[in-house]
């Protein structure tokens, strides 16, 4: 029994309309959970033994637009980082809340329970050089390093045991000039599914959804769908019977291309598998405790 946790940056539940690219039946992965065209505010919550969809709060009782630093820290710790900071902050973790990722994160708790987590994203050498020089890490990489879990690099992509940020490895090949082959979204999805044979918690982060939201570019959003949707759909369709898939976000953005900023919309929570621990989830702070409940039902 394993949990696959796919974190998608910057996807909210907004009104259906011309500026909402995720309110579309072409998003088959989202439609699988909602039973309607993609995901939007008109979709009713869904709750069965094996499928769950519900919109959850990302504002965390703090004024202003939610940001990635505090949102992701909350998501990966189960503690309201925006409340501690007294504001929303991003894109990197806020100074007074870093301890949540360095000491009390989802990965830390999984390890303490005797289970094994892995972060599937791989990073090129240039990322490590810049991050180490500035000592500035993203929420996911700070959590992973602090929990004593190894970050994946080029070698892990070559061996087929990790996934690049854009899924298909095309950027690594074309823009970074690295000797890696381009793969299909389905092949990348198989790497996550394969990891469940070794690890209890498999985390993958996708950030281009947030980038597309900031760009206000419909074509960019469509290009993303053509990669992300088949990737997610393959995981949904091929998930092991005893495994659980969790998909959620840190704040809204992509669902409203009429503006360049994040939104205060709720974010979608999609679950396939053991939905019981998530049925009372109200905010992104409830995701980590629910994942831990799956791994350790007696806690």
Identify the notable features of this structure and list them briefly.
299 residues, alpha/beta, seven-stranded mixed sheet, 37% helix
Molecular structure report:
The chain is an alpha/beta fold and 299 residues long. It contains 13 helices and seven strands. Strands 2-3-7-6-1-5-4 form a seven-stranded mixed sheet, with helices on both faces. Helix 1 (28-34) crosses helix 12 (218-238). The longest helix has 21 residues, at 218-238. It is globular, with a radius of gyration of 18 Å.
Order of helices and strands: EHEEHHHHEHHHHHEHHEEH
Unreliably modeled segments:
none
Query: Strand order within the widest sheet?
Result: 2-3-7-6-1-5-4
- Spatial gap, N to C terminus: 16 Å
Number of helices: 13
Radius of gyration, in angstroms, nearest whole number:
18 Å
Mean pLDDT figure: 96
Give a short account of the largest sheet.
7 strands, mixed
